[in-house]
Design brief:
This protein has 736 residues and is of the alpha/beta class. The protein folds into 6 domains: 217 residues; 84 residues, no CATH class; 115 residues, Ribonuclease H-like superfamily/Ribonuclease H (Nucleotidyltransferase, domain 5), CATH 3.30.420; 101 residues, no CATH class; 43 residues, no CATH class; 96 residues, Rossmann fold (3-Layer(aba) Sandwich). The chain contains 33 helices and 10 strands. Strands 1-4-3-2-5-6 form a 6-stranded mixed β-sheet, sandwiched between helices. Strand 3 and strand 4 form a beta hairpin. The radius of gyration is 34 Å and the shape is elongated. The N terminus is likely disordered.
Length: 736
């Protein structure tokens, strides 16, 4: 008899359960795979009704209910292939409906990988939709939300279901991948999903009100499903589906409100922004949005006074009935006029700036603001010279925690007695962009030109985000000296060379703050400039809106200072490295160190380095392997991620300079603060992988989040060799 005889030739057909028993014995023997396949196909041919026979076998076994590859899945998949070769066995009419009713009892229990072949074999996509929806609803109301959604996706029922009802329990359980799969093929559903999520970000909306409807929900973690997570999800989906952010006004408003609060902190708590700079950012953030204008007035009442709030209310033509108590009366009395005191304060500030901060040692006419390729010619001739030393810095509009990296607006190149400011926003024509890209790539890849920077890796990452041409620029860079690395070496030697008598005015952070009357201790590049040149940088223009044109004179001078000071710091350190605790020639040591690291990543490059460079490289490695010197808490500054606020408070009690992210802050804000203020990032878990790539080596530390704050603090202090004395405890203000 033929192995695959027609079932009609076998009266009564083979018993499906006997076939199942035979296949089970073969399934346990790995060496019998070929025989298993032959026996399976022979069995299908011998069954009177293969479709009913499959259900008999599945109903009398249970291995297909568990995860992993099962015999039930194997038989089902083989039958699907066999039916393609024998289409005559397909059923129709009433008989098919009976089979479909039986298969649903299996679908509600099986793993997702078994659903597709069963849907195909029993033609469930052609079944009555109300019948299918009834089965899915039964699953849903029995608390099987995940199974109901998976089955809905497989049966393509989304158009006939309530999107919010189906997806809410999954969102509460952090199963966003299933929600995304549910709307994946329908742009209308994607828009509806984002509108639902945005509605949950209304100020009066409480997510806990939704959660109460699902009291018995497993794996619900209210600490994870919060406003911050919701906003991050919305921004990710907007980008993923390429939708207009205007679709989610509540999320956008909350993001802008967060930016406003940050601006108020920078202006009125840190006092690190000028009034003009702050006003520029506030107006740009608020725009014509009446809700944001109202929030601005409320913040002004909290941080300033009624008169200031009334002035802004007048500026926005705010209805009196919507103003907070007292502001309306102040607005009634307000007379808009220029104040002589403002001009006097400006003069006082300018005098203070010249006295207390680093001043650019070149005349104003030697600062060149370049906006066209023709204007670039003089810059190219001076910059692209072998042996040239260039100070490089970049400016971009601050993101204030928003998603994505800002594009570079200004590229500063400083050579001796000259500073060139390249307005990258103006190079829009394709021909000019190509020429500019070639110039920048030539500059950074030429090992004969020494490029000075501070945190240059972060600058290059922002440049790559600005233009795809620079995507691989970080790998091609040669001949750079990152003074951030030098700064780390200086900090290690700080306690030793502070005790010696130097020609340079070296002050501790505490001394500089006390004697100069600054509210905030100097950080980052400003602190390095203070250590080496005697005065810090004036950073009040750092958070300017660098995309607004024309740039103010203060911005131009600030940008020029940031690049030119690198030349002066480098020159001072190079004159007498030993005076600052540096053991070798600054440029040669750091450039060769970078080249050694680059070659280590490319084993096929067998070019040998000079022997002197080898010795220097070994010296650098040896120095790095030594334990770092003991430092006091006053010399240690950190920024704590928002899941480590307990650790932050504990370290502050011990005298450490601590900044902590708020609960709603994005993790990436920690990197922004660390780069601007020279702080070490303390984080935990997945954010560590993202943050460590955005700051210098050794500037990000992952803490064990499962431990208590005391154990975490001991771990941090030990790693960074911080020694706490009795006088350090509670030496800092605990209210921040």
């Amino acid at each position: 008899m033929n192995q695959e005889s027609n079932p009609s030739e076998l009266p009564g057909g083979q018993d499906p359960l006997l076939l199942l028993k035979t296949l089970q014995s073969l399934w346990t023997k790995k060496e019998m795979k070929k025989q298993l396949k032959e026996e399976t196909r022979r069995g299908f041919a011998g069954l009177e009704d293969p479709l009913a026979g499959l259900l008999d076998m599945l109903e009398n076994s249970s291995d297909w209910k568990g995860k992993g590859h099962s015999l039930g899945y194997y038989i089902t998949n083989e039958l699907q292939l066999w039916i393609k070769e024998h289409p005559a066995v397909q059923q129709t009419g009433l008989k098919l409906k009976k089979l479909q009713a039986r298969v649903f009892r299996i679908l509600v229990q099986c793993q997702p990988n078994l659903i597709d072949p069963l849907v195909n074999i029993y033609q469930l996509l052609t079944a009555d939709r109300s019948y299918l929806l009834g089965h899915v609803s039964h699953l849903y109301y029995n608390g099987k939300y995940k199974e109901a959604v998976i089955l809905s996706i497989k049966l393509r029922l989304q158009q006939d279901q309530d999107l919010e009802k189906m997806c809410t329990p999954l969102l509460l359980q952090d199963k966003t991948n299933l929600v995304e799969a549910y709307v994946a093929e329908d742009p209308n559903l994607q828009c509806k999903l984002l509108q639902i999520l945005d509605a949950w970000r209304e100020p009066s909306f409480n997510i806990k009100d939704i959660a109460r409807q699902y009291q018995g929900l497993l794996n619900y973690r209210p600490d994870k499903f919060n406003h911050k997570m919701l906003s991050k999800l919305v921004f990710r989906l907007l980008k993923q589906y390429n939708l207009d952010p205007a679709l989610c006004p509540n999320v956008i408003n909350q993001q802008h409100l967060g930016s406003l609060k940050y601006l108020f902190y920078k202006r009125f708590v840190e006092k690190s922004m000028t009034q003009e700079n702050w006003t520029d950012h506030v107006q740009s953030t608020v725009g014509d949005n009446r809700w944001l204008q109202e929030q601005l007035i409320r913040l002004l009442v909290s941080y300033c006074d009624l008169n200031t709030a009334a002035r802004w209310a007048f500026h926005y033509n705010f209805p009196k009935e919507n103003l907070p108590y007292g502001v309306a009366d102040e607005l009634q009395r307000l007379k808009i006029q220029e104040r002589v005191e403002d001009a006097e304060r400006t003069d006082d500030y300018e005098e203070d700036r010249k006295k207390n901060y680093y001043q650019l040692p070149i005349p104003r006419e030697n600062i060149h603001f370049l906006q066209t390729w023709e204007e670039m010619q003089q810059c190219r001739e001076q910059v692209l010279q072998a042996g040239q030393v260039i100070g490089i810095d970049m400016e971009w509009r601050p993101s204030f925690g928003s998603v994505g990296r800002s594009r570079v607006s200004l590229l500063q190149l400083a050579v001796k007695d000259q500073v060139f400011l390249l307005d990258l926003l103006q190079f829009q024509e394709e021909a000019e962009q190509e020429k500019l890209s070639h110039f920048i790539q030539t500059l950074f890849s030429d090992p004969a030109i020494t490029k000075l920077g501070y945190g240059m890796s972060g600058d290059l990452t922002s440049l790559a985000a600005t233009c795809s041409t620079f995507k691989n620029l970080n790998r091609e860079v040669q001949g750079t000296v990152d003074l951030f690395t030098v700064d780390k070496q200086l900090q290690k030697c700080f306690r030793d060379w502070r005790k010696d008598v130097r020609k340079v005015d070296v002050l501790s952070q505490e001394q500089s703050c006390e004697e100069r009357g600054f509210r905030q201790a100097e950080k980052g590049l400003s602190l390095l400039v203070q250590h080496v040149l005697g005065k810090p940088l004036d950073k009040t223009e750092q958070l300017s809106n660098w995309e607004k044109r024309p740039l103010r004179e203060e911005q131009i001078l600030y940008a020029a200072c940031d690049a030119y000071c690198l030349l002066e710091v480098y020159g001072k350190l190079s004159e007498d490295p030993a005076a600052f605790g540096l053991s070798s020639d600054l440029a040669e040591c750091l450039v060769e160190k970078q080249a050694t690291k680059s070659r280590a990543k490319r084993p096929l490059n067998k070019q040998k380095m000079p022997s002197t460079s080898k010795q220097q490289s070994k010296g650098v490695v040896k120095e790095a392997s030594n334990p770092s010197p003991v430092i006091s808490p006053k010399e240690f500054s950190v920024v704590c991620d928002n899941m480590l606020q307990g650790l932050g408070r504990y370290l502050r009690c011990l005298g450490v300079d601590v900044r902590m992210l708020e609960n709603d802050d994005d993790h990436r804000k920690a990197a922004e603060i660390a780069r601007q203020e020279g702080r070490v990032i303390l984080t935990s878990g997945l954010p560590y992988q993202t943050l460590q790539s955005q700051v210098g080596e050794g500037r990000c530390f992952s803490v064990n989040c499962s431990e208590k704050a005391r154990e975490q603090a001991l771990q941090v202090l030990k790693h960074f060799n911080v020694q706490v004395a009795l006088a350090d405890i509670f030496s800092r203000c605990q209210v921040r």
